[in-house]
Amino acid sequence: TGMELHRAWHMTLLTSKILQQLKDKFNMRMTWELGVIKLKFRVEDGGYELHRKVPYDYDSEFQDLYMKIAVAFLDGHITIHQALLFQSETKHGKHTAKSGLFLRDFPGRLVLYPLEAATCAVIFFGGDWYDAGVAAITGLAAGLVEYLLTTIGGSAKGLIDISVGVTTGLIAGLFYVYGGQQTCLPAVFLGTLYWFFYGTAFVLGILEIVSGELETGVVRFMAVAVKTFVLTLGTVFGMQIAMSNPVDAWQDQDGNCGNIDLDVQWWRIPLYVACSASALGQYRFPISEYWRGLAVQVVGYEVQYRLFKRFALTHDKDLLDTACSNLVGAVAAVVFASMLSSVVDRLGYYYYARVLQRHKGKFSTFGEFMFTLSVMYIRFCNWIGFGNNNDMVYLAMTKKLQQQSEELNDENNMRSEIRLTEEEEVVLLEAVVQAEDLNIWALLMPTVYQLVPGSLIAKLWFNAVFPPPLESEMKTIDGSDLTYSSVKPDQAESAVFQALMVVAASLALGLLVGFGVVEYGSWLLGKIFCCFDKVVATSFKGTDSIRSIINRKQSRKTLNYTCNEDDPDSDSDGEVDGIVVAEHEYNPDEEDVNVLCSLIGGDELGTSHLVEKDKISEADSDSDAMHPNTEKEDHVKLN
Q1: Paired residues of 42 in beta bridges
Q2: Which residue, 188, 218, 269, 376, is most buried by CB atoms nearer than 10 A?
Q3: What is the predicted pLDDT for the residue at 335?
Q4: Are 279 and 450 in contact (CB under 8 A)?
């Protein structure tokens, strides 16, 4: 779980939290170190150590799926064998929609490069439509270069950044020279290289440092700076090949850049949405769920944009406008992402409770409407080719399961087992995993990517190569008509590093504050309005208390994890983050039972072809229907 979440670039603090919950649940004597690349796991006081070097890449879909697998195992919905099997199938793309597989890797991934480069050049970096066209060409060329070097593999992968930079600088330089010197080079460069910038890692590095993970945070911070400088230097080399005086071309921004006033353009938000959609594709976000990611991205962007414009009126000589707008924008994104996830989880309850038969009888009118709406959305997504075909397979087998389950529940019926094909078992297991709550970070990370200052890091290095020109000012000597020329550094151009730190630190603090607002806001609302989580209670199984499951669920949505001591026994008993930690010994003979029992109200979960009937009691009320009946004695026969 830790390695695969890390490979999908899940936040280390949240990954540590889910590992801690697994450790506490099963009373394991284990510690770990999650570095930037290297991972270390120690078991039994270091008697056994596992060291892995795990590269990472943007992958929101896998972040969500691997978290759901771990949670399903934690809460007793699947066994360890099923969890490992599902992880392997996920890694091989068996639970990804065809549209997702197309954008997941080359060559289909190439369609995203020009779209992101063109839209970023206009919406973020002051380019016009001509610059957008040039950026689309350089973006496609950069994608082809990465595709080629990735296909070659080996040491060729180490040349991706420098090669992409040279290609971008060369092509944009040729357009500048032979296109009438009307190209806004900063917009083209920054828009094209936006895909390769490491602004998210920069913010996360600061967040890790603030949270106490000093080694990981500092290494990530330095790695981002060096890798971005490689991209910048490669671009400068490309410019040198294409033109005789790269310095003048870089500084020739008057008349070429900032020709579009975005404040008065009706298409500003639609263009940002297109840019955000390309970012979601880069993050391998499921296409059928784009609406969630786009909603969070637009909220974060609009809050940041509006506040920056408002504060800029009174803070034109400092960076308080930048700090405040970024902090509040990040807080708004976190809070909205958490609210959206909570609403989607609760509305999705009706669908999964029906198809997994965790609820007996009919829902309320609203519940029936939400179930019908969910089914229509699944069918629509598959009709247009964006959905997961496994969802359609499961919908088709729902009636079969319901009929066989009812016959199994009927003591007067001769049916003694539920039979499924191997394909149906896989689809059923996927439905059980997908019924778990959304991973908020998988939804939030693309938004953070759109807010972070990757371009500022590049601009800092461009200024190191091409020092900004000095500002010249003519002054008159007092008491005479004599004048003299005074020069000084351009304050705006020379303060890039300061701006970079202000933006990155304010975003990191915004994430911390946002998760704090969510944590304590949820606690307060829980005290005021409710004391019980219906969704969790529906899937409650076995040894854990309902409150323990709810506490684990709430704890995974915050960033309050810190590991002060590297002691495998430091939290093996007592209470951690409000979660009561109890002794638990894993017994595969007790745990390895059929998932299908959940369909008929049983207490255990597993994956077999057969479920034998002994005696099944019906729930006597709506409240009983919300809980698995612990008195049922379903016996499971394993093939």
Answers
A1: 31, 49
A2: 188
A3: 92
A4: yes
Separation between Cα atoms, residue 383 and residue 293, nearest integer Å: 21
Query: Measured between alpha carbons, how far is residue 501 from residues 18, 203, 205, 495, 498 in Å?
Result: 30, 9, 12, 10, 5
For 299, the token pair is 């909220």
Span 306-327, pLDDT tens digits: 888 888 777 767 778 888 888 9
Tokens found for residue 367:
């519940």
On the question of pLDDT at 573 being above 50, the answer is no
Rounded CA gap, 633 and 639, in Å?
A: 19
Closest CA to 542 of 474, 629, 477: 629
Lookup: tokens for 637? 């026969």
Pick the closest to residue 494 from 517, 469, 523 (CA basis). Answer: 469
The two three-digit tokens of residue 47, written as one number? 């008697």
Phi, psi of 490 (to 5 degrees): -70, 110
Lowest mean pLDDT among 231-235, 256-260, 348-352, 411-415: 411-415
Q: How far apart are CA 312 and CA 180, in angstroms?
A: 35
- Give all strands of the β-sheet with 38-43 in edge-to-edge order: 30-34, 38-43, 48-53
For every residue of 287-298, DSSP letters joined together read GGGHHHHHHHHH
338: nearest Cα among 480, 199, 439: 439
The CA distance from 173 to 178, in Å, is: 9
The C-alpha atoms of residue 68 and residue 441 are separated, in whole angstroms, by 12
Residue 293 structure tokens? 């990611």
Decide: 137 and 114 in contact? Cβ < 8 Å. yes
Strand duo 483-488 + 574-576: pairing? unpaired
Task: Quote the pLDDT of residue 215.
Answer: 84
List pLDDT tens digits, range 435-493. 888 888 888 888 888 887 556 677 777 877 777 766 666 667 776 766 766 656 555 55
- Residues paired with residue 31 on neighbouring β-strands, in sequence order: 42
Q: Are 632 and 615 in contact (CB under 8 A)?
A: yes
